[in-house]
């Protein structure tokens, strides 16, 4: 997919709403399985690397899948436990839209039914960093003041995290 997205955050005096909690992780040992081989400062682009198509994202799908499921599921569970959130009082899981199987496994581990998971990969594909903003845009009319949302993602490097938002 191809897309762009942004979220505008603004300060609030009301401590009950907004970003309540965040947790992020990074593990550089996964770099060999999910990276861009050329085109960064260490390996600038040349005509030779362009001809080899090394300027694009590379991933070892099986290894990335296993780590993505574990990373996203673990961090969602951690944020839920830390904030006393249960599958009953979480209105929405807003996962990175990389792969439906990763999304399903993360939701399953959190004890969430499909009705509580924002999903739009079928419409746009994996738009990388735009997936979560696009989900929020697509589901905006379904969101109610006070809804508990957990946004979660997994990406290059390996990096992963979750954000608890009170809408």
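Q: What amino acid sequence fits the structure above?
A:
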């Amino acid at each position: 997919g191809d897309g762009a997205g942004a979220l505008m955050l603004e300060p609030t005096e009301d401590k009950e709403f907004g970003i309540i909690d965040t947790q992020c992780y990074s593990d550089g040992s996964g770099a060999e399985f999910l990276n861009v081989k050329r085109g960064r400062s260490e390996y600038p682009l040349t005509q030779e690397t362009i001809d080899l198509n090394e300027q694009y994202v590379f991933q070892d799908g099986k290894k990335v899948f296993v780590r993505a499921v574990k990373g996203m599921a673990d961090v969602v569970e951690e944020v839920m436990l830390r904030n006393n959130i249960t599958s009953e009082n979480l209105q929405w899981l807003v996962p990175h839209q990389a792969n439906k199987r990763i999304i399903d496994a993360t939701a399953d581990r959190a004890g969430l039914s499909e009705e509580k998971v924002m999903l739009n990969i079928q419409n746009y594909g994996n738009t990388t960093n735009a997936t979560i903003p696009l989900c929020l845009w697509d589901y905006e009319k379904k969101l109610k003041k006070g809804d508990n949302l957990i946004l979660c993602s997994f990406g290059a490097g390996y990096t992963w995290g979750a954000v608890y938002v009170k809408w």
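Q: And what stands out in the fold?
A: The two ends are 27 Å apart (CA to CA).
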